[in-house]
């Protein structure tokens, strides 16, 4: 198999991590989940849980050298068959893709919109987005189809020539765009309002829903608990420092989310004091800001949405790759066929996701207080921490101690190593299990 180069690996992993989760999802979740308290739990989880599990997941791929199922199976000293079943987590990626691809479709629509007249005023913009979501299913399906084709095409090309190459270009461009817009937003009066909205925690808003959303989102945003990182690490060159790599990934990912969040709210608050516009947030607030810049605004809008499209594609690709790797092995089939089989699943369910927001069909695709879109999103936030628990326990208890020490001795000192293992064995599993049970039974 073709290996990544070291830089290529960082690029691809950062590409997987930095995605719609950072720029589309994080900002509206902050508003929905009560502001600063959510952000604090999210940051806490990245630092004390995320990085430890990230290193664990990288290690499993790095040592196992196979797809998700294979790596667990090869490395387990006993109960190989059972550990091999951990491959179920790769399928979480297909669930995420059902809505991910639809949202990439919305982005394509806004790329086209950038060439014409942008909405004037927040109310107008809101109406434009909401009517698109609730009635325009044909364009939504067409753009979702386009997203599906682009993702399938890149994954068929494989890790080296598809994924690595695409990311070399996509990631730096996106980061420049976000950072540029952030720097501009500093000049707005509303910049400080935005900062305090994101960083001032109000602990009375904390409850089990907020906790789960924050922890689930921390996993989602660094692409943890599903086998993306594991699958990519299986093509790591030997002698890579995975501790360093993990820090870089967590750092870039968090930086992009925070820059994007502060920038988007600074823009929003310069027009309205209302923060909560749900999944429409970036689509509603930014075009209005861009509109006020005249033609320059059209150009900014274009580069922003193109950047977001790139971020989405490099993450979507990473959501599909783990299942594809697995299917190639178990079905003994070609990469192209594996991509088509798994791609069709998310493509078709994605169409149902679209219809779950369309006025005339949504009642058939809504159960309780959530439509299909919300349910998938919600269940994902339980599945990813579950994957995290399995990986933590596996590295903490199952991997032979000697192998662990030999691999990590040049990357961590003894104290850090022991803290890391203790964290994986006890703190992380107990905290996550407690949180999941609390959620399921509350
Ligand atoms: N991290 C990506 C985002 O923030 C989404 C993603 C890609 C992901 N690969 C993943 C989420 C694996 C969970 C697991 O948009």
Automatic annotation (TrEMBL):
Places the protein is found: Membrane
Keywords: Membrane, Transmembrane, Transmembrane helix, Transport
Membrane-topology annotation of the record: Multi-pass membrane protein
Pfam annotation, one family: SNF
GO CC annotations on file: membrane
Major location category of this protein: membrane
Spans traversing the lipid bilayer: 7-24, 36-56, 87-112, 137-156, 168-187, 210-233, 245-268, 299-327, 339-358, 378-399, 419-437
Identification of the protein by name: TRANSMEMBRANE TRANSPORT PROTEIN
